[in-house]
Amino acid sequence: MKIAVTKLREKSEGIHELFRRYGHEALIISTMVAADPKDPEPLTSLAEMASKGTIDILIFTSALGVDKLFQRANPAQKVRIVSVGPKTAKKVEEYGFKSQVIAKFSSEHFAQYLGDIRGKTLGIARADVPNPELIRSLESGGATVVEAPAYRLGPAGTIFDDILDDADAVIFTSAKSFEYSRFQLKNHKKLKVVAIGEKTAIAMRNLHLEPDMVGDGTLESCLIVLGRK
């Protein structure tokens, strides 16, 4: 199958190889663009705290967040680094550091992956998209959370109808990527529409589009489900 997938240009490394492993061709559509945060001070402050070792655990939810923080400062060796996903961990390794890898996670229950975090200070470098479930999960475990937007996402403003006309399916990888795509099913009725996870599916349903399939938060799960159809 030819499968369109919404990915930031900066986060699309390895996508073609992944899809080929499952016998498909990836058609990458960047419905969003990344830019520096409007206020750089929180990220600069978090980088300084990490370099001084005044935080205990540094959490990265994307490879782009790794780049943005490490461009400012390197964490102290005693700081425990946690990466969400192998691509994020690989980016940490490129800077000469090691991290604990969490392949997939639930924001609401993130604390359980970290063990005892009572009294710990946790730093999160993330996109400028609030994740209150994640923060509540960490604070419920007794941690103090310092979060900083490492980058912000905006609409690419590009029409992708020509790519979608050539596709058999489309995978939306986040609620924002769906929102910014301005996708209209009536223009692409033959497409199988896939949400990468439940939050993305909810965003789609809020705009009166029921996805054909919903993954578990990973592209691999979407490709496996598509392979069964």
Strand order of the largest sheet: 3-8-7-4-5-6
**Relative helix content:** 25-40%
Instruction: Count up the helices.
Output: 9
Distance between the termini: 11 Å
Structural class computed from helices and strand pairing: alpha/beta
Run of helices and strands: EHEEHEHEHEEHEHEHEHEH
- Rg estimate, integer Å: 18 Å
Strand content: 15-25%
CATH topology of the largest domain: Rossmann fold
Number of domains: 2
* CATH first level of the largest domain: Alpha Beta
Task: Identify low-pLDDT runs.
Answer: none
What is the molecular shape? Answer: elongated
Mean pLDDT: 91
Number of strands: 11
- CATH architecture of the largest domain, by name, is 3-Layer(aba) Sandwich
Largest sheet: 6 strands, mixed
